[in-house]
Amino acid sequence: MKRSTWVLLGLVVALVVAILVWERNQPSTDESAEQHNKVFDLSPDKVTELARSGEGPLQLKRGPEDQWSLLAPLKDAADRYAVEGFVERLNQARALHFPEAGTPLASMGLDKPRATWDVRGGDRPILVEVGAKAPLGEGLYLRVAGRPALVPADLESLLLRPADDFRLKNLTAAATQDVQSLSLEGEGGRKLAFHRTAKDGGWQVTAPFDDWGAEDKITQVLDDVSLCLVDSFLDAGANASLDRKGAGLDPPRDKIRIEMTKGPAVDIALGGPVPGGDPKKDLIYATVSGRPSVMVISRNGLKSLFERPDGLRSLGLFRRDVSEAKEVIIGGQQGLTLTRRKDGAWKVEGKVSSGSSTSDGGLVTAALEGLKGERAIPWTGPSTPGFGAVAATITLKGEGFEEMVEIGQEQEGRRLAHAKGRPVAIVLKEEPWKSLEACLRTATSPKGSSGPTEKKTLP
Question: What pLDDT does residue 235 have?
């Protein structure tokens, strides 16, 4: 075969490949039709402001950290997900068909639109005019950026939805991770207060007692307060006529103040029950600083806030996690020292039997992390009933901190533990303590011992 023939054959093959690649990258018939029927040319993540005039005027604006605010008909926090969901539904809207050029606007109700949306934040503002329903419920007429379109009828409820649908449905916008402190003053002199500690970021309860707070329980309280759902908003007219004293809001039955690590404090007033409300919901009146309306909420959503304060007390033995320590010292009959190596592993040193079975203290520190209490009892010093003499001490040393816990003698099948400065002793759970004892025996038993080792337990 001649060289020229090979060259021609190569060109044909290359052309066929190019055509196949081009066809594969072309949209299908369905995709082309869907793109052709697209009504809105939006970039949802770029939208920064929405305003509706005509029927149900309102204005929404995006602020820092993608937080939305309702500016009209009243000023309030907006529900970010409601606003973003609205924009996304607009972006996904497809026309049933586009009326022919020259179709009278009056026949589509677009000569005098019921409402007009001004969408800003993209390359250019987009005007969305809401017209009439098509005959026989076939759809809704819109004019988007000057182009009429017939769209599915369900877009009517989206485009004419009331302003309240865009309002924040949670009691507050306070994020739990940004809360510095919470205090409550309630009926009958009830008080509750706790705050984050500066040194370790843990929690300290200061009322009705002064002790360490349980992070998981306090987080639950903060979540319940910030995520408590609003059942309904009372508009300005209802606010004006509402007997605030009769509603238990003047003065409030319960006052809550939340201090934030950044931004203004949040003050919440809880009032009395809503007449005729669903007993299962236990509806009450509430107000929140920075929000314009009296709200109706379910007291059930704040359940953890009104449970026994003692449940917020930490049953842990240490402020810090064992993983934060660089050295762990266990004093007592089975005493030993654990030091953290550069690779993060734990090495057993100190009071270890000659030829110890292992130099890895990972099992011991894991057992220490699982060491918890089941309840707290008042601490009255070494004479606290059930404590007895000090049988062991556990000390954590780390960057800028040192903590020590004393473990009492076993009495009637239980042990008490006490950290310096705490007003309570912690009754240890039996299984975690037995696990720690077993790990200590393993760490201090002779290496290579084939028979059972002598069972050593703390006094």
Answer: 72
Residue 357 has what DSSP assignment?
Answer: S
Q: Read off the tokens for 403.
A: 């903590």
Give whole-number Cα distances, 151 to 89, 159, 162, 187, in Å.
Answer: 12, 12, 20, 55
Residue-wise pLDDT for 424-444, tens only, equals 999 999 898 888 888 888 877
Average pLDDT over residues 417-423: 94
Residues 6+ apart with CB under 8 A from 237: none
Instruction: Give 361's DSSP letter.
Output: -
Query: What is the residue type of 159?
Result: L
Look at residue 83 and tell me if it is in a domain. Answer: yes
Which residues are bridge partners to 339 per DSSP? 327, 347
Q: Give the residue from 153, 148, 34 showing the smallest Cα distance to 99.
A: 148
Domain end (from 166, 198, 218): 166
Sheet holding 115-120, edge to edge: 76-77, 68-72, 58-62, 49-54, 115-120, 126-133, 140-144, 147-151
Q: Is pLDDT above 70 for 28?
A: no
Q: Which of 48, 116, 54, 143 is nearest to 87 (CA)?
A: 48
Residues 326 and 436 reside in one and the same domain: yes
Q: How many domains does the chain have?
A: 3
Q: In 3D, which of 200, 392, 431 has the Cα closest to residue 314?
A: 200
Token output for 22: 């081009």
As a whole number of angstroms, the distance between CA 88 and CA 370 comes to 47
Q: What element of type H or E holds 34?
A: helix 29-36
DSSP bridge pairs for 398: 325, 401
